């Protein structure tokens, strides 16, 4: 295995599943959002408030390039919006085996019900439920375009989903 990136909407399980996959494969795990926080010394919500989404996306792109350049073997959990920029989509397709953790809006909303206040993109006003549906609809084709494989995550435990990712993307 070389580089495996997990993509998908917020709360699709990228970080949780990614940690399990990396542990099972005995390779490093990197959460792109935590990487950005470490490099900037700021939390993602603070970056959004202080610098704005556009600057956050630029920092995120720079981090993605660095990981793709510097790490030969890694399981990477991207942020849900990492696929927004075309350059990121191209980098993910060129440098990673990419698995889209696909979740239905209902699954995402159920997982976010207690975490909405920590998600900057849900803090823009209006109905968070509609915001999730709108963002998911906007990003769906990008996730599918970037994906080498798709794993549905609406059912099954984290362990089962991780095993599906490994079997699908790695063939073990």
From TrEMBL:
Keywords per UniProt: Amino-acid biosynthesis, Aromatic amino acid biosynthesis, ATP-binding, Cytoplasm, Kinase, Magnesium, Metal-binding, Nucleotide-binding, Transferase
Reactions mediated catalytically: shikimate + ATP = 3-phosphoshikimate + ADP + H(+)
Primary localization: cytoplasm
Cofactor note: Binds 1 Mg(2+) ion per subunit.
One Gene Ontology term from the biological process aspect of the record: amino acid biosynthetic process
Pathway in which the depicted protein is active: Metabolic intermediate biosynthesis; chorismate biosynthesis; chorismate from D-erythrose 4-phosphate and phosphoenolpyruvate: step 5/7
One Gene Ontology MF term: ATP binding
Listed PROSITE patterns: SHIKIMATE_KINASE (PS01128)
HAMAP family per UniProt: Shikimate_kinase (MF_00109)
Protein's name according to its UniProt entry: Shikimate kinase
């Amino acid at each position: 295995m070389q580089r495996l990136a997990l993509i998908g909407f917020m709360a699709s399980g990228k970080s949780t599943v990614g940690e399990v996959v990396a542990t099972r494969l005995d390779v490093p795990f990197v959460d792109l959002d935590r990487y950005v926080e470490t490099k900037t010394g700021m939390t993602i919500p603070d970056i959004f408030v202080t610098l704005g989404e556009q600057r956050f996306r630029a920092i995120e792109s720079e981090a993605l390039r660095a990981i793709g350049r510097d790490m030969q073997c890694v399981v990477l959990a991207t942020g849900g919006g990492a696929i927004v920029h075309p350059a990121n989509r191209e980098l993910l397709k060129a440098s990673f085996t990419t698995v889209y953790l696909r979740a239905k809006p209902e699954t995402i909303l159920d997982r976010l019900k207690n975490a909405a206040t920590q998600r900057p993109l849900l803090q823009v006003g209006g109905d968070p439920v509609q915001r999730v549906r709108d963002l998911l609809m906007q990003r769906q084709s990008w996730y599918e375009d970037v994906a080498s494989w798709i794993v549905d995550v609406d059912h099954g435990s984290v362990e089962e989903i991780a095993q599906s990712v490994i079997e699908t993307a790695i063939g073990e």
